[in-house]
Amino acid sequence: MGQTRQVYALGGEPNLYVSKAPEQYPTVQSLVWSSYNWGTENITILASDPNFSTGMFYIGVHAYCGQDVTTLFTPASYQVAVEFITPVHEYLPLDQIFSSQLQANKYLYYKFCIPDDCTNVNVKLQSCINATTCPTTYAWPEMLISNSVTKPTLQDRTWKLAEITRRNIVLNHQSPNVRAGHYYVGIFGWCTPNQFCNDKSTCGPCDNYNNGIQFTLQVLTTKVPQDKCQPSKPPNCTNDASAMKISLVLCLVMYLVNILI
């Protein structure tokens, strides 16, 4: 689940604050999320955000004014929109085998959820990587994982698998970047352009992707014994989403809207 909150500036300079229950009136001191862009404001809150939880959210809009903005002391008029984001990633079930096809130099995206802080995870990517066994269909796809970036890439990710011999990424509960919640997986169809591939048995040519490369993914979990780990509050591991929009045109310094999710 995720949410996008936007304030469309129609006049003046509105700023957007968001808080969670029990804080009903978000201010600079009490907000959880904020946006201070000039003009239209936008905040996207993902289920992977450590501050995210289901319940009541509160929106505050503050009309900023002064000599340092082009709108000076113009009252803020605006529209507020709240959208519940439909998931764009296929959900990977834990401890099961998922299979698909991959094209050359393309990304496929998935997500999974670690249910608590006392679970170790082993994410396995398997495909034919042996030129002798699969001379025209072998390939070396890469795997990227992040718990903050929803579409990890070769340049922007937390963990990367780019080896031929080892085909897995281990997320240990003791690692500083590992926490309970949602993780996003990107599979990239790495290959060598045909014009630079003199020996197709060693270079991983893009031609091998012509009919799509078959691969499987597994998210294998191992519980850590309770005497070695005490889990904290479990995260929201649902994959539900809906949509709603609220529009307002106001000329107020502060207006608050409640959103129940």
* Beta-strand segment tally: 16
Query: What is the number of helices?
Result: 0
Q: How many angstroms does the end-to-end distance come to?
A: 10 Å
Give me the side-by-side strand order of the main sheet.
Answer: 7-9-14-11-12
Main sheet summary: 5 strands, mixed
Helical residue percent band = under 10%
Write down the Rg: 23 Å
Give the overall form. Answer: flat
Average pLDDT metric: 80
Question: What's the assembly state of these chains?
Answer: single chain
Unreliable spans: 239-261
H/E element order: EEEEEEEEEEEEEEEE
Strand content of the residues, in percent?
A: 35-45%
Helix/strand/pairing category: mainly beta
SSE topology sketch:
Blueprint: E1 2-11, E2 13-20, E3 33-35, E4 41-46, E5 56-64, E6 77-84, E7 90-91, E8 97-102, E9 107-114, E10 119-126, E11 142-146, E12 159-161, E13 168-171, E14 181-188, E15 213-223, E16 254-260
Can you offer a commentary on this structure?
- The chain is 0% helix and 41% strand.
- It has 261 residues and is mostly beta strands.
- The strands form 4 sheets. The protein has a 5-stranded mixed beta sheet with strand order 7-9-14-11-12, with no helix packed on it. Strands 3-2-5-16 form a 4-stranded antiparallel beta sheet, with no helix packed on it.
- It is flat and about 70 Å long.
- It starts with a strand and ends with a strand.
- Residues 239-261 have low confidence and may be disordered.
